[in-house]
Design brief:
The chain contains six helices and ten strands. The chain is of the alpha/beta class. The strands form two sheets. Strands 6-7-8-3-9-10 form a six-stranded mixed β-sheet, with helices on both faces. The radius of gyration is 18 Å and the shape is globular.
């Protein structure tokens, strides 16, 4: 991992974002420049309302910035449309702050839905789904529907769903918020292994100071501005 890599996985330059337009516009991100190397595991923290989810949604191409540059895993997100936009999104693993699972699907089916977008031999995909759910402590719960699962179990299903297709870039918004410390460690280890063994770039929002030490980078956002960006050296 080279901090000043020529080909960063995420490169933001002078990025600003406002909700609404004209007199009612509310600017929430101000002139953010940030670069993450492939395989880097970065944690973003900051007070509620500081713009963390908004920043993730820009990187995930769910919104478009009004100004600044935004390049992610080889795509310029500015003019991204149609098939290229679709192709970009398929390389992402998005773990949302509000992880909505479809009530009618079992844990296994929820994760399977994500692999349906990426055709491959069924048996291999199914083995991977089982291995991932088992690693996340849901081996006995694969055939349960959301209403039969606890909040933390649902959250782990959503994490498996986001990771099963081996995304190049993982964007995670408070993925451990509903988890006890044992499951938090399991999820963090999984994300760290993806980053360090597979070269997956991980940008994770969390307020949980217990997990900061897992990350290679600690980025703090305050009032829509980059307040600090610390790289761990060990
Ligand atoms: N759809 C929206 N329309 C208008 N303003 C919004 C919208 N979504 C978020 N905001 C505002 O943008 C600011 C940043 O919100 P954001 O959700 O990015 O914060 P956050 O850092 O993720 O907070 P939290 O830690 O509570 O999740 C907040 O002031 C919020 O009120
Ligand atoms: Mg948020």
């Amino acid at each position: 991992m080279t901090p000043d890599s020529q080909n960063p996985a995420i490169a933001l330059e002078g990025l600003s974002y406002a909700f609404g337009a004209g007199e009612t516009a509310k600017q929430v991100l101000f002139d953010i420049s940030l670069s993450l190397a492939p395989g880097e595991f970065a944690i973003m923290t900051g007070p509620s309302g500081s713009g963390k989810t908004t920043l993730l949604s820009l990187v995930g191409a769910l919104r478009r910035p009004q100004s600044g540059k935004l390049n992610c895993i080889g795509h310029d997100l500015h003019g991204l449309e149609g098939a290229e936009l679709e192709g970009y999104r398929q390389q992402l693993g998005f773990i949302f702050q509000l992880h909505n699972l479809f009530p009618a699907l079992t844990a296994f089916q929820s994760v399977q839905m994500a692999t349906d977008l990426h055709p491959e031999p069924g048996a291999e995909a199914n083995d991977r789904i089982r291995a991932l759910l088992t690693r996340l402590g849901l081996g006995e719960r694969m055939d349960y529907r959301p209403h039969q699962l606890s909040g933390g179990q649902r959250q782990r299903v959503a994490i498996a769903r986001a990771l099963v297709h081996r995304p190049a870039l993982v964007l995670a918004d408070e993925p451990t918020a509903a988890l006890d410390s044992e499951n938090t460690q399991i999820v963090l280890q999984l994300l760290a292994d993806l980053a360090h063994e597979r070269g997956t770039t991980v940008l994770m929002v969390t307020q949980d100071s217990r997990v900061f030490e897992s990350a290679d980078r600690l980025i703090n956002l305050v009032d829509g501005r980059l307040d600090s960006d610390v790289r761990r050296t060990d």
